[in-house]
């Protein structure tokens, strides 16, 4: 199957990926493994925290975002990975039983100076709940293969 | 037991947390769940990628960092969580069989304007391998309870 290349991503393009239902069991299991703070493990303890009740670890939200975009487009692309993350903002709690989706927006694209066969696509990702409230935002660039290595942009 | 408060973190302070041995089985299991890209799943496919061989998902590195700092100080503190992440840089691959640690450095601290009972501590975290090479860096602020709410800084 043909794969998405760097040139296929245009600034302003928007897509929605998911959905994914997040259960209480997943939230507690993830927290027990990676982020065992009370607000991610136990309703009673969580009610006394800033989250105001049990909510997923912010890292779990990032991991679920990654899985939704992997299934949504990354695995159908020439992605070479990402050099890092520019920003994550955890705005609202992710509660048990919420169905989430990801809205991906292309912020900009640029060719790589050091690797003519590659370009960067900078995305803003928003994790949305059932009511389209934005729970988390993330900005990150993905490296993709160019159809025409070194061509003028 | 007494808990660490905002005032206990001073700019320039450094601590090491961990270690944690990362196995091939963990790398593949995490990738299969959250980040099923070839370079995190299969040696042969990974050898043709920028990673040059099987390496952990960058998200797994972040999650392991979280677990090491949770055990290292967060669970012994008055941490109220984090509003987000300022930056992550995945500099070198995390290979199967590597023992990692975290070096945490306090970059700066500031009281909250809107919540007098709370302050922010900005940390730089570095994930180190057995040879002290820096695999990943992360900058993030944690919210902590102040011993003296609203006191002059």
Provide tags for this entry.
homodimer; 153 residues; alpha+beta; Thiol Ester Dehydrase, Chain A; 6-stranded antiparallel β-sheet
Write the layout of secondary structure elements.
Two copies of one chain form a homodimer.
Chain A: E1 14-22, H1 24-34, H2 43-47, H3 58-72, E2 79-81, E3 84-85, E4 87-90, E5 98-111, E6 118-128, E7 134-145
Antiparallel strand pairs in A: 1-5, 2-7, 4-7, 5-6, 6-7
Question: How is this structure best described in words?
Answer:
The structure is a homodimer of 153-residue chains. The first copy, chain A, has a domain at 6-22 and 58-145: Hotdog Thioesterase (Thiol Ester Dehydrase, Chain A, Roll). The first copy, chain A, is 20% helix and 36% strand. The first copy, chain A, is built from three helices and seven strands. In chain A, strands 1, 2, 4, 5, 6 and 7 form a six-stranded antiparallel beta sheet that branches. The first copy, chain A, is elongated. The two termini of chain A are 26 Å apart. The mean pLDDT of chain A is 96. The A-B interface holds A 33-37, 39, 49-51, 57-59, 62-64, 66-67, 70, 74-75, 79-90, 143 and B 33-37, 39, 49-51, 57-59, 62-64, 66-67, 70, 74-75, 79-90, 143.
Termini separation of chain A: 26 Å
Q: Count the DSSP helices of chain A.
A: 3
Return the string of H and E elements of chain A.
Answer: EHHHEEEEEE
Shape of chain A: elongated
- The helix/strand class of chain A is alpha+beta
Percentage of residues assigned to helices of chain A: 10-25%
Oligomer: homodimer
What is the fold-level CATH name, i.e. the topology of one domain in chain A? Answer: Thiol Ester Dehydrase, Chain A
Residue windows where pLDDT falls under 50 for at least 5 positions of chain A: none
CATH superfamily heading of one domain in chain A = Hotdog Thioesterase
The largest sheet of chain A is: 6 strands, antiparallel
How much is the average pLDDT of chain A? 96
